[in-house]
Amino acid sequence: MKKSLVFIFLITLLISMYAVDMNSSLPVDSGVKIGKLSNGLTYYLRQNSIPENKAELRLVVNAGSVLEDDDQAGLAHFTEHMAFNGTKNFKKSELTDYLGSIGMGFAGGLNAYTSFDETVYMLKSATDDKVQLKKSIFILSEWADKLSFDHDEIEKERGVIIEEWRGGRGADERIRNKQNEVVLKDSKYAKRSPIGSYEIISTFKPEAIKRFYRDWYRPDLQAVVVVGDIDINEVETYIKEYFDSIPARKAPRERVIEAVPDHKETLVSIVSDKEANSSSVSLVIKSQIEKIKTIGDYKRVLTTNLFSDMFNQRLQELSTKENAPFLYAFTYKYPMTRSKSMLMSTAAVKDNQIIKGFEALATEKERIDRFGFTATELERAKLSLLKDTERRLKEKDKQDSNRLVWAYVRHYLNEGTLLNEDQSYQLVQDLLPLITLEDVNQLIKEYSNEDNRVITASFPEKEGNIAPKEEELLAVLNKTDRMELTPYEDKTVNEPLLANIKPAGKIISKKYNKSADLYELYLSNGVKVVYKKTDFKNNEILFDSFSPGGFSKFSTEDMKQADFINQYMYGSGIGSFDRNALTKYMTGKNAEVSVNINGIYEGLNGSCSPEDFELMMQLIHSYFVQPRKDKTFFNTFISTLEGFLQNKALDPESVFEDSVLVYSHNRHPRINIQTTDSIKNVDLDTVFKLYQDRFADASDFTFFFVGSIDEKQIEKLSENYLANLPALNRKEKIEDHKIEYVKGIHDYKIYSGMEEKSMIKITLPSDYSHNKKNNTQVSAMILVLNEKLRENIREKMSGVYYIYAYPEIQKYPSQKLAIHIFLGCSPDRVEELTQAIYREMDLMRTQVVEEKYMNIYRQTMLQNHTSNIKKNYFWLSSLKTIYQNDRPTDDFINNMNYVNAVKAKEIQKTAQKYLKYDKNRIRFVLYPVNKA
Predict the structure, then answer these.
(1) Residue 706 and residue 608: Cα distance in Å, rounded?
(2) Which of 387, 495, 790, 848 is most enclosed, with most CB atoms within 10 A?
(3) What pLDDT is stored for residue 3 in this prediction?
(4) Contact yes or no for 618/497 (Cβ under 8 A)
(5) Total domain count, the chain
(6) Structure-derived torsion over alpha carbons of residues 426, 429, 434, 438, reported in degrees to the nearest 10
(7) Alpha helices for 695-745 (secondary structure H)
(8) Which domain holds residue 196?
(9) Do the strands 758-767 and 921-927 form a parallel or antiparallel pair, or are they unpaired?
(10) Which parts of the chain register pLDDT below 70?
(11) d(CA 738, CA 234)
C-alpha cells in the first residue's frame, strides 16, 4: 500500500513538473486596466464594489529622499506637506477645506507619506457623485504638477515639520541612524533619512524645494491608481483630461537607482543609548533585489516564505522554554532599498545577554544547516500557506478597495506581481508539490553567506550593562560549526482538543430583532447568544462576549496579581496543549480565541471561517472548562516580562504615561504600574485562581456572533458548547471602587529624557449623563475641536505636528466623561500652546460653531457610517456596546438621524458643559531633564 502511495505521489509530481513551465511569465490580472499617456504617466484602474460608491485614489511619485541634493535633505518630505498648502487652483487651505466639506479630509482618510524612494498621496472619493469623483482626479493632477509653494505657507509648514522632526527624536532614532551608517555603508541612503536635516529644514530657501519639485515631480515618474466602484472608461477619460496636458520634461535628470555597495568583510555595529529600553542583536545579509517575473521566480518566493515560517516556528518554541536565550526572535526577508534585499534574523534579549541571544540564533541556523527541517514541519508550513491562499480566494469578490490599491502601487514602484486570487491560488496549488525539503533547506546557505553581512547590536547605556565586543560577535558565527548538536524533534500532541465534554444544553427561547435583523438565543444555563448573519464577507465569522464584573470583583490586594491574567492566558495554551502544541494543532485552521478581562467586564473574543466554526466553539468552551495551568510557561512568562520591564524607566514616554495614570487618579491603590519589582511576587496559583473565578459562571455571559453564519449550525453549536458551560447563577454587578479623576486644577511636570521635546496631556473630567443624544453631541464637539486645533495650533501657529482630542465616556460603574487633549511640542512653547488650546475652548464655549465645521462633521460621519455599516467588526463592536449599556439597536443603525439632528447651538452648550478647563483640569507636561 505504501509503495502504491509513493508511486502515485511521484507520478503526480512528474505531471506537475511537466505541466508547469518555470520560465513562463507570471499571469496578470485582467481586471486591472494599465495605461500610459504620451507624457509618460502610468495609470492603473480597477473596478471593485467594496465599499459601495467609494473609490481609493493614489498619486504615486517615484521619487523620495534619496534623490535629494545636499542642500535638500528633508525637502522630499517637505514637498509632500506643501501639497496640502496650496496649488494653482486651490489657494492655501482651499483644497483641504473642500475635501473636509465632502467628508474626505484628514478626518476621512486624506494622507500621504514619503520614504527613501517614493512619495504617495492618498485620497478617497464618493463615486455616486460624478462631480466629486472628477474633482478628486483633478486634485491629483494639481499635486502632480501645480503646487504653488506660497512663501507664507512654506514658513508656516517649516514649524510643523520641525515638530515632526522633534517628535521622532529619541533612542530609537539615534540607534537607527548609527546602525544605518553601517548597514547602508557608503550609500546615499545612509545620509538621506526622509525627515531630513534640522539645519536645512529650518533655513532652506524656497528655490531649493522648487528645484526638487521641478526635477522629480514629472509624468514619467508618476502613476495614478484608482480602485473602487467606478466606470473604468469614465475615470480613464478624467485622467486623460487632467494629466495629458502636463508636458513631458525636456532633458530630465536621470532617475538613478542608488546602489548600496557590496562588501566582503562582515561589518559590525554596536550602539548604546542612555534612553534605550531594550537590547537586541541581529544578523543582516544583503543581496540584490530579485525581480518576480516568471513562474520560477514565484516558486522561489514561496520557498522563501516556507523557510521563514518554519524557522520562525522554531525560534518561537525557543522563546517559550524555561531560561530562554531571548525574549523573542524572528527572521524575515524584505526589500531594504530599490537595489538591495535584507535577510535579517533578530532577537530581543535581556541586559548582558546579547552574546547568548546571538549564539542561540546562530545555533538554530547551524542545526538547520546540518539536519534540515523535518517532513512534518514542511507539511504544516505548506498547509498553512495553501489555506491562507484559499481564504483569500473565497473572499475574491469581497476585497476592500483599500487593500487592492496598494498592490498596484507596489507594482508600479517595485515591479511586484499582479495576480488575482484565482491565479494566485492556482499557482500555489501547482507549485507547492514541487517544493522539496532540499529546496527549503538550501536557503540556509543564504544565512551562511559571508559577503554583505552585518551584525548589529544595541543596548541601554547604564551601569552594569556591559557592551559586547566586536570580536565576540564575530566569533559566534565561527563557533557553532564545532558544536555538538542533535536534530530538531518535532513534538506534537495527539489528543482531542476537548477530552471530556458535558451533554449538550438547550435553547430555551429564540427572539428576532427586526430592526437589526438579528436573533437572540436564550440558553438553558442562562447564557445569551446574539447572532447576525451578514454577506459582507464570504469566509468570516467574528465573535465577542462579556460578563459584568471584571477586575472590579477582586480585592485591592488581588489586583496586584490580576493585572497579569490576560498576558499569562495569551500564551498558556489550553488543556493538554501548551502554546507550541496548540500552534501546531491549529495549522491550516482559521480559528482564534483570546481572553480579555478589564476593569468592569470579562470575556472572550476571536474569529473563524465558517468551516472552522465548531473548532472556535471548542476553544471557547476550553477556556471555561480546561484552562491550562503551566508552571514552566509561567516561569518563562515572568522572566520574559522582567526583560521587557527592566529598562522601562529609561524611556521618557513610558515614564510620562505611567505618571499620567498614577497622578490622574490621585495614586488610587488599584492603579498598578508593572515594574520589575511588581512582578516579583506574582504567583501562578493566585493568577490562575482569579482567572477561574471570572470564568466559573457562564450564566451572565452574552456572546455575539457576526458574519457568514448558518442558522442551524450556530444553534446546534450553541447547545453543544455554550449551553453546557458551568452556571452558578451569581447575578453579579460591577463594583464601584471610586477610581475617580482628581478634582480641581492640577498641573504636573515630569522631567525625563535628553531630547529638547515635550509632550502635553490635558484631561478635563466631568460628571455625565450617558445617553445616545449626549454621546452624539460630545462626538460632534470633539470632531469640531480637532478641526480647530489642527487649523490654529498646527497650521497657523506652526506649533505641533500632532495634536488631537478624544473623549473617554463611561456608564459603569458610574457615569463619567473625560475629554483628553494630547500633543507634542518644543519645551519652550509649552505655555504658549497651552494657552492657545484654552483660547480655542473659550471660543467654542462663547461662539456658535460655524456652518463650515457642521458640514465637515456631518459629511465625515456620513462617509464613515456608509462604509462601516457594511463591515462585520463594526456590527460586532456596536452590538456589544449597545447590550453593555442597555440601549436599543436602533441607536447605531440609525446613527445618521442623531448626527443630522445635532445643531450648532447644541455643540456650543456641550462645550460650555465639558470644556471647563478653568474648573476641573489635569495637565501633564513632559520636559527634558535639563529643564528641571
Answers:
(1) 11
(2) 790
(3) 45
(4) yes
(5) 4
(6) 120
(7) 711-717
(8) 32-243
(9) antiparallel
(10) 1-19
(11) 61
